[in-house]
Amino acid sequence: MLRLLLITSMLLVGSITAHASEYKDRWSDGSAITLFDNDPDWKYAEARIEQEKKGKYVSFFLEPLNLEEKCKLRLAEEGESKRQIFKVNGQAIQGKVACKQWVNTGGRYYIFYAVTDAGDNFIANEFKKSREVRIEHVLQNFTLSAEGFTVEWNAQSERAL
User: Fold this and answer.
1) Is the separation of the CB atoms in 152 and 49 below 8 Å?
2) Residue 3's pLDDT is what?
3) Which helix (H) or strand (E) holds 93?
4) Residue ranges of the chain whose pLDDT lies below 50
5) Domain boundaries, the chain
6) What is the CATH architecture of 22-158?
């Protein structure tokens, strides 16, 4: 009887945890999105493969539920970036964060990314070798799917600039 109660409790806790978890979408069109289920502050997190003269790298976006929200936590004045450390699968990464405004909606969002080549390489390699990648940032912690990343990373190399 005690064993049955314990198993039932474990199943119930597992289903509650699964219901409150994030919805993670696989990589496609150069990005992956995690939708936050029942989060009071955040709508989604996104990772994108960016390509510039310096090469390819992954940037992260967070969009708050309240799009009218002002930039918070004194991260940076709107449009300006500020150095800030974040973690990828437990590894500290030197980065920058900025609060910006969507052109089409006027809503605000946060973008952050590594500022060193070593950080860029570490992030890309974590997505290449993992099933999921855990991001820890002062604004929000979240997990992104790594499924399909390598295909998208390689496809970015083939796209014309």
Assistant:
1) yes
2) 36
3) strand 91-101
4) 1-21
5) 22-158
6) Sandwich (2.60)
